[in-house]
Amino acid sequence: MTISIWRYSHLVLAIMSSLFILIASVTGAILAFEPISNQIQPYAIDGAEDVSLAKTLSVLQQEYDEVFTLEKDKNDFLIASVITKEGESETFYVHPITGEKLGDLIKKAPIFEFATNLHRSLFLKTTGRVLIGVVSFLLFVIAVTGIKLILKRQGGIKRFFSKVVKENFEQYYHVVIGKYALIPIVIITLTGVFLSLEKFDVLPDSKISHQYPEQEEVEQRLLLRDIPLFQNTRLKNVTHVEFPFSDDIEDYFTVKLNDKELLVNQYTGAIVSHQDISFVALASYWSLILHTGQGTIIWAIVLLLACVAIMFFMYSGFAMTLRRRNSTSKIKNIFKKDEAEYIILIGSETGNTFRSATLFYDALIDVGHSVFMATLNDYSTYDKAKYLVVFAATYGEGEAPISASNFVKLFKSVKQKQPLHYAVVGFGSLMYPEYCKYAIDVDVMFQNKTYFTEHLPLFKINNQSFEAFKTWITQWNAQTHHDLKIKFQKPQINLKKLKEFKVIHKSEPNIDDSFLVQLRPTKKVKFTSGDLLSLYPEVDFIERQYSIGKIEKDILLSIKKHEFGVCSNYFNNLKINEIVNAQVKHNLDFHFPKDAKEVVMIANGTGIAPFLGMINEQRTAIKTHLFWGGRTKDSLRMYETFIDAALYKKTLTSFEVAYSQEQKDKFYVQDLILNHQELISKVLKANGVVMICGSVAMQNRVLETIHTITLKQLNTPLSTFEANDQLKMDCY
Ligand SMILES: Cc1cc2nc3c(=O)[nH]c(=O)nc-3n(C[C@H](O)[C@H](O)[C@H](O)COP(=O)(O)O)c2cc1C
Predict the structure, then answer these.
(1) CA-to-CA distance for 656 and 374, rounded, in angstroms?
(2) Can you give the residue ranges of the Flavodoxin-like domain (predicted)?
(3) Is the pTM of this model over 0.90?
(4) Residue 522 confidence (pLDDT)
(5) Is 432 in the pocket of ligand 1 (CB under 6 A)?
(6) What is the pLDDT confidence band of residue 492, given thresholds at 50, 70 and 90?
(7) Of 20, 90, 158, 690, which is most buried with the most CB atoms under 10 A?
(8) Pairing outcome for strands 499-506 and 514-521
(9) CA distance 2 to 396
(10) Which CATH architecture has domain 592-731?
(11) For residue range 512-543, what is the model confidence (pLDDT) as tens digits?
(12) Do 438 and 392 form a contact (C-beta atoms < 8 A)?
């Protein structure tokens, strides 16, 4: 619930101030170019910072008839105001060592002039300045609530920079960019507020006033270069020097340094008055630098990127809100709650779970069932229902998502009139210690009510995996004797992107109907083991993906033939030298981790293909262990040459196999993992990586086993290793 409050404030403030934030960020981005373009002007002199004030002042005195001021501008260039030997009064950039004129003062370009006015006051003078000040403050609050939301999402400060789960483009980049841009945005907005307050004289007065003690007349005047203060002061500490107005002993040099202002007797060089610059003046100085990027190209670039990030946040934030609204308001039931045989109830916070629920709803409707879909918060009695299916995400720390916030209460008070079959599908993320906790709680609630009978055991889905969802549909079909077809959106295929691959080898299907295909690209194609090969059969142009093992320059695929499988039969009927049109999709998250010390690979069935490539490709000294689960010894045969070659080359350290059908008691790859728990915990503890490829059912069992192992051996939940990017999975 707390998450919703933070998200709500974040959104409401963003909507309220969106137009102004847009103006401020666009103009801010333009203005960030001003310090950059100034800095590339040739007025900065190498080593000038360490030149003594004595040197510069005396050279100016020699070169010009009279000197009024020497000051550093916002770009850290030195400016002198003088009367030249020709009697001209001039102000220009000056060389600190030779005293020569370097150039005329930079004039502000009209675009920067315009952008500055719009940025500061929207051309509305005081009203505009107040508005911008308020918007700056609102943006500060938005950034702070954003940081709070990221902390909640990532699971605390320690995990702030750890991996972000990608559910969709906008959500992913909103969080990823947010992690890096929010701190600069907090700085920009706070300094913006400060600068606004300063303009309205709200801050304590920071003006310096000196006491002027009476000075005794002296006969001799020290040369400028002999005045100790000037000798000991480097230009880097000076901001402004004003020469005495006349030769009167009571007219002084006024020297402004970074942290103080001094009056210096022009005859004796004595410091007549010394005043420290106030905290407010110092804060004002730094606010201006941090807000405008004056004098530093790097910070100006950071400011520019932060402004661009704000514009992206506006787009992605609103896109996410629209998506959330669309998915929740999309429920358009054909049947009323008391007419339907199937009831689908959804618990979702950000709307993604609605996607799977809607696909299931459509599939049931397509085969002629009466279905009613609602949120868990709308839980009620259902007169004709026989099945109740819950799709529930988990939020906070194992808590209910917003559309299920009231469900527990309702469940206690609503009594169903007839017995119902139930199934719960949990949506969560392995990044969180309380993986799918809310769905687990809901499942237990059903178990404890006598009028509910379990139709399917609780099924957990990690990161909205579509492959896992399809596995659940297969289980549903088997249990219910349905043939539900999930209609997923056809990805847009660009036929031009398809490449040609020649068939080099194809094995005959083995005892499990699995076979190997070796393909060679006809032209140069970049790929590595773990990438995916996408095919779009002409029947439906629906994408089918296969995990690639790279053997030399060829692609090795391991494919299981399904009786009516379009693609698997297509592959099985291929002849040597035939051409396959397909596209390589890079799967960066499933590449071999070249910087890990030790790697454990776990696969079942055809999931071994990418690992066959990795163990043969790998040339580093990374210890690599492969665990594989298959049905019988015959199942392994076609992979043996690759495994033996890798063991011989020592690119594979160990290979362990679990056969489910070779002995009386079934033995699966997860049992094998349990038998090697010391190795698993040792690898994870040493920052090693565990890679899993194969069926979703195997993946779930293996993850449960590893979770038990890490809890027992390392007292750490699996989520810690997932957040640390030590788990790489590609399951289907
Ligand atoms: C702040 C936050 C907290 C989360 N907490 C958990 C959690 O405790 N357990 C879990 O399994 N998933 C957790 N998740 C992951 C969500 O359940 C997962 O992203 C889900 O797919 C979101 O579905 P929805 O878009 O329908 O709300 C959390 C996500 C966020 C952003």
Answers:
(1) 47
(2) 342-481
(3) no
(4) 96
(5) yes
(6) low
(7) 690
(8) antiparallel
(9) 8
(10) 3-Layer(aba) Sandwich (3.40)
(11) 999 999 999 999 999 999 999 999 887 667 78
(12) yes
Nearest to 467 by CA among 401, 358, 571, 543: 543
> Do residues 205 and 170 lie in contact, with contact meaning Cβ atoms separated by under 8 Å?
no
Fold that domain 330-480 belongs to in CATH: Rossmann fold (3.40.50)
SS3 assignment, position 5: helix
DSSP states of 175-198: HHHHHHHHHHHHHHHHHHHHHHHH
Give yes or no for a contact between 196 and 133, defined as CB atoms under 8 angstroms apart. Answer: yes
Q: Are 379 and 345 a contacting pair, CB within 8 Å?
A: yes
Task: Ligand 1 pocket test: pick from 349, 441, 704, 707 the residue with the most ligand atoms within 8 Å of its Cβ.
Answer: 349
Do the beta carbons of residue 583 and residue 497 sit within 8 Å?
yes
**pLDDT over 70 (residue 444):** yes
Burial class (CB in 10 A: 0-12, 13-18, 19+), 249: middle
- Block residue for tokens 């307050």: 197
With cut-offs at 50, 70 and 90, classify the pLDDT of residue 56: very high
Determine the residue of 145, 165, 402, 427 to mutate for testing ligand 1's pocket, defined as the one with the most ligand atoms within 8 A of the Cβ atom: 427
For residue 643, what are the contacts with CB-CB under 8 A and spacing of at least 6? 612, 615, 626, 652, 655
Indicate whether residue 435 lines ligand 1 (CB < 6 A): yes
CATH 3.40.630.10 fits 495-588, yes or no: no
Nearest to 547 by CA among 487, 603, 500, 482: 603
Kindly list the distances between the CA atom of residue 146 and the CA atoms of 150, 181, 291, 378, 565, in Å, as whole numbers in the listed order: 6, 11, 20, 30, 47
Q: What is the mean pLDDT of residues 12-39?
A: 91
CA torsion 244-246-250-251 (nearest 10°) is -20
The Cα 589–Cα 252 span in angstroms is 69
- Nearest-angstrom CA–CA distance, 605 and 146: 44
pLDDT classification of 31: cutoffs 50, 70, 90:
very high
CA angle centred on 485, ends 482 and 489, rounded to 5°: 160
pLDDT at 544 over 70: yes
Percent of the chain whose predicted confidence (pLDDT) is above 90 = 75
What is the Cα–Cα distance from 710 to 704, expressed in whole angstroms?
A: 10
DSSP string, 253-301: EEEEESSEEEEEETTT--EEEEEEPPHHHHHHHHHHHHHH-TT-HHHHH
Residue 8 has φ and ψ, to the nearest 5°, of -65, -45
Model pLDDT, residue 6: 80
Residue 387 carries which side chain, given as an amino acid letter?
A: Y
The answer, yes or no, to whether any atom of ligand 1 lies below 6 A from the CB of 351, is yes
What ipTM does this complex have?
Answer: 0.98
* pLDDT tens digit sequence for 468-483: 999 999 999 999 998 8
Does ligand 1 have an atom closer than 6 angstroms to the CB of 506? no
The torsion angles phi and psi of 261, rounded to 5 degrees, stand at: -125, 135
What is the β-pairing status of strands 689-694 and 727-731?
A: parallel
Residue at 215: amino acid letter: Q
Residue 322 has pLDDT above 90, yes or no: no
CA 273 to mean position of chain CA atoms: 54
In this chain, the answer to whether the domains covering 495-588 and 592-731 adopt an identical fold is: no
Return all residues near 163 (Cβ < 8 A) that are at least 6 apart.
Answer: 431, 722, 723, 724, 725
Domain residue extents for the chain: 2-37+110-204+293-322, 53-97+228-277, 330-480, 495-588, 592-731
